[in-house]
Amino acid sequence: MTPAQTHADEIRAVARHLGRRRFLTTTGAAAALAFAVNLPAAGTAAAAELDGRRISEDPFTLGVASGDPMPGSVLLWTKLAPRPYETGGGLPAGTRVTVRWELARDERFTKGVRRGTAPAHAEFDHTVHVEVDGLAPGRDWFYRFRVGAWTSPVGRTRTAPAPGAHNARLKLAAVSCQAYHDGYFTAYRHLADEDLDVVFHLGDYLYEYAVNATGGARAYTDRRLPDVFDRETVTLEDYRLRYALYKSDPDLRAAHAAHPFAVTWDDHETENNYAGDTSEDGIPPEEFLIRRAAAYRAYWENQPLRRPQRPTGPDMRLYRRLRFGRLAQFDILDTRQYRSDQAYGDGWQTPGPESEDPARTLTGAEQERWLIDGWKASRARWNVVPQQVVLSERRNVPGSAFKLSMDSWDGYPASRQRILAGAEAAGVANLMVLAGDVHVSYALDIKDDFRDPASRTVGTEIVATSISSGKNGSERPSNHANLTRANPHLRFYNGRRGYTTVTLGESEARADFRTVSAVTTPGAPVVTAASFVTEAGRPGLHPA
Predict the structure, then answer these.
(1) 498: helix, coil or strand?
(2) Terminal Cα-to-Cα distance of the chain (whole angstroms)
(3) pLDDT at 20
């Protein structure tokens, strides 16, 4: 598909989405989308080829990445941006650059396996997505890109084990929430040194809020940020530049170069606490969907995602499934795009008829069926669900006068119960849910009935703290006593920054909560704050 065809499809998609609601005419939708995401007019001449030898500055300032590992395939990503804080990365508008890529068995590229070329189109902000097929499963690979005289950093990736393989061990990491203005991405530097098969990013890869000239909690002494970041992201250009700011961080680049990522979004990649086509600020859906189209497009451009995830207007199929032999199946969810609006105006509220309405959904009906059908067909030892918000109940205080978060699964209890009932009906013996969002670490037992502490434990939930959001945090947040007393299924609670690793084996899974003492100053060491295990066939967490 050519960039021109992609633009036409995006315009038609927004027109259809809005037309159903009779908010705009097709012409109005197309004009608004073109304004918001800066698309060329129909019939624009083909892009001019820019000779890579004419690029006089390093175009690989934002590093390299790989994603969504499959048994015989890897997805490789880079972006050409010699001046990343400028529109178009400092490359001439309307140009196309041919990028060479290489894949090898060794870091010095003496054992080359594949090579080829890929176009970097201005319409996709000179990003490159290369899907390399026909590879051996379960192996490490090294990759790099070349343009003119410039060579990118070397990345390492790993294919998934073969289908049906009796792989005995898999180690993953879960990360989330990396507000640039709240601190340094120190945890990523430590993550880069871990031996991992895959990293799951569970959302809030960036934040839409303005970042002032001094970078917030990052204490710049030698430079200031351009004023272009001192505004909330709304247009495609805003989102593209914000990704450039985040990906300019050396620790984030190191983590991407070290491991394949499987990403999913939460709210801040578009707007805080949005729900479907409903904006946090109550703007009309026809306006918000245009912003959503810009956010979704920039997300795909800047993440190591495959072709099926490329958006069409304000719609993007982000939920998907990865399999790692017979050991693990990963069902990656999207709990933002299809959800009902938050009950009772959002926030922490007393549950009632509105939040408990059986018609409410966090996943949408189609994704819910997809998840449960996938469990029915699964033969994996562990069924893991990487997603965004906390699934287990979290009462804010002991007693009967508690409140629940309307933005998490607590605000959609009927949706949660359908999912858990589906897992039981499918015979899922070892259910593990990964979550982020809340800027703290939790280890939770998933209960059949959270109202009854004595009810069966049906799974395990691991909540990864933030990389930097919330600044330094504390080991015992101020609500630690209330939350632990009110929720006996909560086995661990820590408020420091960091990430979590999970090692899956045939007989048990082990979660290690890795934290750093500070993010407002760089270079803090990493420690293991706690470790828990759950035995295969016996749901429930125990200290390691």
Answers:
(1) strand
(2) 51
(3) 45
Instruction: For residue 373, count other CB atoms closer than 10 A to its CB.
Output: 12
Label residue 120 by pLDDT band (50, 70, 90): very high
How many H-runs (helices) and E-runs (strands) does the chain carry? 9, 25
How many other CB atoms sit within 10 Å of the CB of residue 453? 11
Q: Hey, what are 352's tokens?
A: 């009632």
- Average pLDDT of the residues in 143-158: 98
Classify 451 as helix, strand or coil.
coil
Backbone angles phi, psi at 33, to 5 degrees: -65, -45
DSSP state of 80: -
- pLDDT for the residue numbered 33: 54
Query: What are 330's strand-pairing partners?
Result: 322, 384
3-state secondary structure 488-522: CCEEEEECCEEEEEEEEECCEEEEEEEEECCCCCC
Indicate the helix (H) or strand (E) that contains 515.
Answer: strand 508-516
> Per the structure block, which two tokens stand in for 182?
């709240």
d(CA 216, CA 198) in angstroms, rounded, equals 31
> Quick check: 91 and 97 in contact, CB under 8 A?
yes
**DSSP letter (8 states) at residue 151:** E
**What residues contact residue 108 under an 8 Å CB cut-off, 6+ apart?**
none
Average pLDDT of the chain, as a whole number = 92
Q: Which tens digits make up the pLDDT trace of 460-497? A: 999 999 999 999 999 999 999 999 999 999 999 999 99
The first and second tokens of residue 212, run together, are 């002032």
pLDDT at 39 over 70: no
Residues with Cβ < 8 Å from 45, sequence gap 6 or more?
none
Average pLDDT over residues 21-28: 42
Task: Let me know: does 496 contact 517? Beta carbons within 8 Å.
Answer: yes
Amino acid at position 529, single letter: A
Q: Is the pTM of this model over 0.90?
A: yes
Query: In sequence order, what DSSP letters do the residues of 301-362 get, joined into one string?
Result: HHS---GGG--BTTB----EEEEETTTEEEEE--SSTTPPPPGGGSSEE---TTTT-TT--S
Closest CA to 372 of 444, 306, 321, 445: 321
Residues 6+ apart with CB under 8 A from 175: 187, 188, 191, 199, 200, 201, 202, 436, 464, 467, 499
Q: What angle do CA 538, 434, 274 make, to 5 degrees?
A: 145
pLDDT surpasses 60 at 258: yes
Give me the percent of the chain exceeding a pLDDT of 70.
91
What are the distances in angstroms from CA 33 to CA 18, 488, 528? Answer: 11, 49, 47
Take residue 477 and report the two structure tokens written for it: 């947040």
Q: Which residue has the tokens 């690989």?
A: 60
Q: Residue 321: phi, psi to the nearest 5?
A: -130, 135
